[in-house]
Amino acid sequence: MRFHTKDDLFRWQIFNSRILWIILAVLVILTCNILDKFRSWRINLINIAWIHNVDNNCHDFTSSSLELCPVTTATNIYDWERDFSTDCQLLWLSRYRATKSLQSAQQTFERSTNCSQHDQVVVWGGELAWLQGNRDGAAHWWQQLSSTKLIDWGSNRLSNHEVEQGKFLLTMALEFDQGSLTQAQRSRALLRLGDALRSSQNWSEAIYYYQTAYQIAPDNPEVVFNLGLTYRQNGQPKEAIATLEKGLILLPPFNYGFTAYYYVQLGLAYQDLELWEQAVTAYKQAVSWLHRSKHVNPEEDQFFQGLLDQAQNIEK
Questions:
Q1: Residue 272 lies in a domain
Q2: Nearest residue to 154 (alpha-carbon basis) of 125, 179, 123
C-alpha cells in the first residue's frame, strides 16, 4: 500500500495498532472464559467423586464408569487433580467421602500437607484423627489454629449436630488462648459451649458456662435468654424469672421473633410458679411482638395464642 503523505502513514499505523489491541483484548477474554470453564469442569469432577459410593468391582475409567465404577472414577479424578489443584485439602476429604475409607483418606492427605492452604489442611488433619478415634492426634493438629478459628470451627460442628467435637474445639479455644480473644469472642465460645451442654440436657454445666458468659457480656440478650431458659429447664423458675426480667431492657427493638420467644419463656417461668396474672401479661407481650412481623408462622401464632388463652382461663 502506498502512502502519499507522512500523515497518511501515521494514521494507518494508528489504525493497525488499534486493531491489534482489539484482537489482544478478545484473546484475553476468550482465554479467561476457557480457564473458567476448565475450573468449573474440575469442580464438577470433584462433586462427582463426592457423591459416589463404594464399588470394589470396578477396574476401568471410562465415561460410563461415572455410574458403574464410582471408586475407580474418584481415584483417577484425584490422582489427576493432584497435579493441577491448589485446593489440595479436597484431595483426601473427597476420596474419603467417595470410598468411605480412612486408609485412603490418610494416604491422600499425606500428599496434601505441604499445600498452600495451611489452615484448612490443619482442620481436616484433626478431623481425620478424630474420625480414627485419636483425640490427642486431633488436638495436636487443631492447636496450630488460632483461638478465633477454633471457635468458628467448633460453632460449625455444633450447627452440624457434631456436639462432642464442637465442645472439644471450643474448650481448646479457651484453654489455648494466649490473650488473642476479645471479650466478645470469649463470651461467644462460652455461649456455644452452654448450647452444646443444654442440647444434651446437661443443665447444670450449661448454666455454669452461661453464667460465665454473662459475667463477661451482661448486655448480650442471647446470653441472658439462654441462661434464663436453662434455669427454667433445670427446675429453677425463680432464678429464671430474675434473670429474664433483668434482661428486658436489653431486648432488640426490631428482632420481633427473638423478643416474642423471650416473653414466652418469661411467661412459662411465671406459670411454673402459678403466677397467672404475670404469665398472662408476658404472653400478651409475646403475641404482640410476634404480630409485628410481616410474616407470621400460623403454627407459632396458634401456639402463642394457646398459651395466652390457657393462662387467662386459669386466672379467671
A1: yes
A2: 123
